[in-house]
Structure to design on (251 residues):
């Protein structure tokens, strides 16, 4: 077991968004978990992670942070859950966002309540792969989610919002984000350097708060920004070389 902690986002980092982990990478990653201390840090809830990752990987993780670290699971037990009651006005603003969007298609399940956070999607969580892709490409051109997030945080100053995946926005009370995972991991493993892999490290992305917290905490931590599980795989295959030598912290 190495004396470094590894933290991984899931969607876009260990798997394609909302897809099960690739079989070969899954076998590799399971062996990686046997040799290293691994934590998972996802915006999704546990049932979704269980659809994407086999029990053998979830069981090998030291901790599984779900709902952007509002929940922590270890050995099948909930270690903590931070719940929150969202105000009616905020929910109404999200309803308006969905109904007033110029995007032409809707597939249902537009606001999903999770522990300590909610997830809003114009196209809807029932969108299939093709509908997801269509919205993602439209949103990249139109910047709908980015513009909404800017307006939303100006109005609801007690809350934060991030575009964690392809089609949706995660909303949570200010400070309730993946950075919460750092204090827990540090408490359990004081002084150990951490490497964090994520695909949404830019401001507004849901990996950004944890990346920022790590940068502020110690220069010994590494932040590795990837564009998919293949890139993660490539980095991990080289992980006998300290990642610091390959990727210095982005400034
Ligand atoms: O884990 C990343 C994100 O995955 C999903 O995003 P989307 O459906 O937009 O691709 C959601 O579960 C989201 O909450 C999560 O942050």
């Amino acid at each position: 077991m190495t004396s470094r902690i590894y933290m991984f986002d899931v969607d876009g980092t260990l798997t394609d968004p909302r897809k099960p982990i690739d079989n070969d990478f899954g076998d590799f990653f399971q062996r990686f978990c046997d040799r290293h201390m691994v934590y998972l840090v996802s915006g999704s809830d546990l049932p979704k992670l269980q659809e994407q990752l086999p029990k053998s990987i979830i069981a090998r993780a030291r901790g599984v942070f779900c709902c952007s670290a509002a929940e922590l699971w270890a050995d099948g037990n909930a270690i903590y859950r931070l719940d929150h009651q969202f105000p009616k006005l905020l929910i109404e603003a999200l309803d308006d966002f969905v109904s007033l969007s110029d995007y032409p298609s809707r597939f249902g399940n537009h606001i999903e309540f999770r522990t300590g956070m909610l997830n809003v999607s114009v196209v809807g969580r029932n969108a299939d792969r093709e509908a997801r892709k269509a919205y993602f490409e439209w949103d990249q051109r139109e910047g709908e989610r980015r513009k909404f997030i800017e307006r939303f945080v100006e109005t609801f100053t007690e809350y934060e919002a991030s575009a964690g995946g392809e089609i949706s926005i995660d909303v949570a009370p200010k400070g309730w984000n993946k950075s919460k995972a750092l204090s827990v991991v540090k408490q359990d493993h004081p002084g150990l350097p951490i490497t964090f892999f994520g695909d949404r490290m830019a401001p507004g992305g849901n990996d950004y708060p944890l990346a920022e917290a790590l940068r502020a905490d110690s220069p010994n931590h590494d932040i590795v920004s990837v564009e998919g599980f293949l890139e993660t795989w490539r980095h991990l295959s080289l992980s006998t070389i300290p990642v610091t030598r390959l990727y210095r912290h982005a400034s």
